[in-house]
């Protein structure tokens, strides 16, 4: 079995894939949820401001994650 | 000397033709879900993907990795073997395109080369270990991985955003899709254009045009980048339709989760040196996105046909590759190669004409899925 499968890199791919594929996608969703608390009805409220902050942080992380992914792939 | 130059020319042209089919066969990988959810207009999507494939082809700092290294003995590779392998890959790519099945271009090429090597140099020249660990095992694992990631991603996305108004949600995820689809396109360019560059470099070395240590000549990089992006722009609408509409009905949050999963798995696999097929990853992701929302939404019939095609890809391309080598060898010399080349052209031409009878284009790619590839309007007769 092991001569055919590189278990070591297999695990790494699965973990990195989950981190990037699930993590970043979920972050984007959290950002969107944060943004939608800032709907016109409560734009000025505290919840709205917090939501905006969450959104900014999340979207920044998503972009940074994508950039890191590209960088890591190209550096190889 | 003249004859060998001619032979080399035919090989290079065949390789570029393969590169072209690689492009239009795989447009679907990056863009099918974005087109299906209308995140991008069909023409815009293929144009964006073409540009990113072109850029991607130049981006990789790695010297083009030879596709067949570690799978067949390098001593067994002659120009005719390379040519026959390319014909095998080409034929399979065109056939699966006609039926709208997303199958792996790398597998088609590997199958063709393995088949040609088998018949040219015997079974000893094929490294079974390499074939298993580099091709067969990853082929089983990659769609599973991608599906797993996409299932979890899709589930979380719907969970997290269930309070967000539906229209806001689908608009936002369409925007996100543009980013994730671009990432997949770029990754595709860096990975897949390399394959053809590797094949042409291999042919140049086999013909002693360049020394074995030399890198890929610049004109090869430009030609490959151009061919793959041109192919991408022409767009394999038949495959796009199957992936975007046939496999499952997709909404923009699912599309985003699917593309995010594809991008992450492809990038991770490239980094850790685990050879995955872009096609298998993307198809797996889309299936996962369907499962992650509601199990019943995946059309298992379509999925089954797709997986069957994956299993058949290598043997089928190998058969064609072997036949092409045998044919060229029986007739002999450059003439034999020329005859096989013409036969391949004939095959490609007739498939093209056949496809024209029930065309799938940018205009009808999103028609409702009616159980077959053919859009409903065309099936009235």
TrEMBL record, chain A:
The chain crosses the membrane at residues 13-35, 47-74. Keywords: Membrane, Transmembrane, Transmembrane helix. This is Uncharacterized protein. It comes from Planotetraspora phitsanulokensis.
From TrEMBL, chain B:
Keywords: Membrane, Phosphate transport, Transmembrane, Transmembrane helix, Transport. It is a multi-pass membrane protein. InterPro entries: Phos_transporter (IPR001204). Its main location: membrane. GO terms for cellular component: membrane. It is found in: Membrane. The keyword Transport applies. It comes from the Bacteria. GO terms for molecular function: phosphate transmembrane transporter activity. The chain crosses the membrane at residues 44-64, 76-95, 107-128, 135-158, 218-240, 302-325, 331-354. Coiled coil: none annotated. The keyword Endoplasmic reticulum does not apply. GO terms for biological process: phosphate ion transmembrane transport. Belongs to the inorganic phosphate transporter (PiT) (TC 2.A.20) family. This is Phosphate transporter. It comes from Planotetraspora phitsanulokensis. The gene is pit.
């Amino acid at each position: 079995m092991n001569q055919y499968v590189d278990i070591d890199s297999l695990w790494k791919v699965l973990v990195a894939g989950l981190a990037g594929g699930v993590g970043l996608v979920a972050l984007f969703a959290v950002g969107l949820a944060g943004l939608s608390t800032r709907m016109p009805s409560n734009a000025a409220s505290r919840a709205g401001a917090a939501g905006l902050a969450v959104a900014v942080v999340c979207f920044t992380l998503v972009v940074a994650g994508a950039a890191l992914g590209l960088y890591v792939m190209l550096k190889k | 000397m003249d004859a060998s130059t001619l032979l080399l020319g035919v090989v290079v042209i065949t390789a570029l033709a393969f590169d072209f089919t690689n492009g239009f066969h795989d447009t679907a990988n990056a863009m099918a879900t974005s087109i299906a959810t209308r995140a991008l207009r069909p023409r815009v999507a293929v144009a964006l993907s073409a540009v990113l494939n072109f850029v991607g082809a130049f981006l990789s700092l790695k010297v083009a990795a030879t596709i067949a290294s570690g799978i067949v003995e390098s001593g067994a590779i002659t120009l005719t073997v390379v040519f026959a392998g390319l014909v095998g890959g080409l034929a399979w790519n065109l056939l699966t395109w006609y039926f709208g099945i997303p199958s792996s271009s790398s597998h088609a090429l590997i199958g063709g080369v393995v088949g040609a090597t088998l018949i040219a140099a015997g079974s000893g020249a094929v490294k079974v270990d390499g074939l298993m660990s580099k091709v067969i095992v990853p082929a089983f694992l990659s769609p599973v991985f991608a599906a797993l990631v996409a299932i979890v991603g899709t589930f979380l996305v719907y969970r997290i955003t269930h309070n967000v108004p539906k229209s806001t949600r689908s608009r936002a995820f369409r925007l996100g899709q543009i980013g994730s689809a671009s990432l997949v396109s770029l990754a595709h360019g860096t990975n897949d254009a390399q394959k053809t560059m590797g094949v042409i470099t291999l042919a140049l070395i086999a013909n002693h045009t360049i020394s074995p240590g030399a890198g890929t000549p610049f004109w090869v990089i430009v030609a490959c980048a151009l061919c793959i992006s041109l192919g991408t722009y022409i767009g394999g609408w038949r495959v796009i339709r199957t992936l975007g509409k046939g496999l499952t009905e997709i909404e923009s949050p699912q599309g985003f989760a699917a593309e995010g999963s594809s991008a992450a798995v492809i990038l991770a696999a490239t980094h850790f040196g685990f050879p995955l097929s872009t096609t298998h990853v993307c198809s797996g992701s889309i299936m996962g996105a369907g499962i992650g929302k509601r199990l019943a939404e995946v059309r298992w019939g379509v999925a089954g046909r797709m997986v069957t095609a994956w299993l058949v890809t290598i043997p089928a391309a190998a058969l064609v590759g072997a036949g092409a080598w045998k044919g060229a060898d029986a007739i002999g010399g450059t003439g034999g190669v020329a005859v096989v080349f013409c036969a391949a052209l004939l095959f490609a031409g007739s498939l093209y004409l056949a496809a024209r009878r029930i065309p799938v284009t940018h205009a009808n790619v999103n028609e409702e899925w009616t159980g077959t590839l053919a859009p409903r309007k065309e099936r009235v007769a």
